[in-house]
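Hi F.,

I've been meaning to write this up properly since the lab meeting, where we talked about keeping a consistent format for the predictions we share between groups. The idea is simple: the sequence comes first, exactly as it goes in, then the structure tokens exactly as they come out, then a line or two of notes. No screenshots and no reformatting. I'm using this chain as the first example so we have something concrete to point to.
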Amino acid sequence: MINKICTLLLAAFLFTSCSSDDAPAEDPTATPEVPVTPTEPVVITDPVTPVITPNPSLTLPKSYRYDLMHNGSAVLVNGATYKINGDKLVECGDGVAYQQKYTYTGDLITKIEMWANTTLAHIYEFTYENNKPKSYTIEYVMFAEFAYKIQYTYTHNNDGTVSYERKLLSGKYQNGDEDGKGTLTIVNGNITRDDFVETLTNAQHSKKESLVYEYDTKNTFCKNIKGLNLLYFLQNNPLIGNQCSANNMTSKSGLEEIYNLDGSIRTPSRVIYKTLFAYEYNADNYPIKVTDVTGDNTTVGPTTFTY
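Output, unedited:
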């Protein structure tokens, strides 16, 4: 390119010199031309992708794999990989069927987006007060005809329990759920009991549902993820499973009790289901494998973890 420019300038110079004898006299009143300085071409580059680097001094989740077994063979395999910046969770998912994207405000998780393929399905938003959960909303947006928004609000009691209220803000409940109120019993950062009473519409009774949990004393897969421990109220939510508890869940029982409107018991408390979880750990007491055993002795899993 430089050689071409020099050649053109030389040719222009020779042409001007050879024709100067025949050129008319310059007008002294004419405005002189301002020479144009060539500029370098503008190079457009792609935006810089932020570097996501997990803290090497922490034991952090890398991936998990779940195998649904039937007669000794895996009939369904899924899992997720984790993207972590420092000790904050950026994304987790399989990169195809689903993806969870996390938003922090300071050290607090304030939003989680759940994507199905490339479509936004659920939005979870969280508020806090004095570094304690105050409320969260879940909004389903994938299909307009099934859209809904539910809000949970929390009150932290002097005895260490947490009272909460569930309320439908828009749309309608799925799976027969209703508004209601509940109480969480928390011991050493783990929910040991969740009692919830639904306000049944057009019914002659109310229903109390209780979830009872037991735990080991080991580290959880996501122990060192910043802010995840404050989402303990998602214990029974498939969003992140039991990874927001302080320790690993070893059993989960579901109980149900029916009351008449006058408060008398209509159906005594009974166990609806019970699931046991058996773990294998590494040398640092982090789980590397868990197998679920349901009440009818059906084995589900295993789920394996890498760090």
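Notes:
The helical segments are 2-19.
The chain has one domain: 65-306.

If this format works for you, I'll send the rest the same way.

G.
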